[in-house]
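G., before I forget:
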Amino acid sequence: MGRPAYRQLADILRERIESGRYRPRKPLPSELHLRQEFGVARDTIRRALALLAEWGLVRTIGGRGTFVRAVDRVTVRMEPGLRVFSRPATAAERVTLDLAEGAYVIVIERRDGVEVLPADSTEILVVE
Amino acid sequence: MGRPAYRQLADILRERIESGRYRPRKPLPSELHLRQEFGVARDTIRRALALLAEWGLVRTIGGRGTFVRAVDRVTVRMEPGLRVFSRPATAAERVTLDLAEGAYVIVIERRDGVEVLPADSTEILVVE
DNA sequence: ACGTATTTGTACGTATGTATC
DNA sequence: AGATACATACGTACAAATACG
């Protein structure tokens, strides 16, 4: 007994995203369409999509669709005088940064300004 | 029509946890029991429990039950020479830190040793 | 402005599998 | 072995949000 069906399906869809078959900012096929392609229940489709969303690969929007997220991982190097903290994203930030409801941002305050990055794709590296 | 049923149910259960009615390290009533108490489908119960798990309040274990997590929030102050990063928890860490499959830990490397903390209850504070 | 089609969200039911006690 | 509890997977129906003509 291998992994559950929804888990295998998530892997297949992940591969399609990473290979570029499903393109950034574009919607995946609808749940109905996926159900027909893979011959599984909608429940199984939705579980797989939820996994992908948890992994930060896609983002599902209300009566619209599930979209491939276009994000790169960012690494920030800590320096003295840098102030870094995290807070929930505002509505405007959710739009510009392509974030879901309830997502967090990381705020980086430098002397010359402030930078706001998605918390789920930002790495803070501390060097001495 | 306020929020969805599973959302309201999650709030009720959260209140019971925070009030101490459901005690740390003890199981919540089984899904069957909750279904009977609230008169909703198991699906609804499970969605509420999944929310609580996402919030870090409970942890569900295979054929055993859903347990109230006993964790305190920890705050770590950044200092020069400190290296902090995050990675998936190992199997052993999941046991000792009371974490679910797929959970992350935060690793803090100091000159005198390494500390590993649950990512969902650790706060990193950066001071200059 | 309106209705219709599409798509995701919620909620119910049922059955079976797996893990634990 | 049997009972209990969670996990997966199928099905159905309707609601809500969105898109489009």
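The CA atoms of residues 14 and 30 of chain A lie 16 Å apart. The helical segments of chain A are 5-19, 31-38, 42-54, 91-96.

More on Monday.
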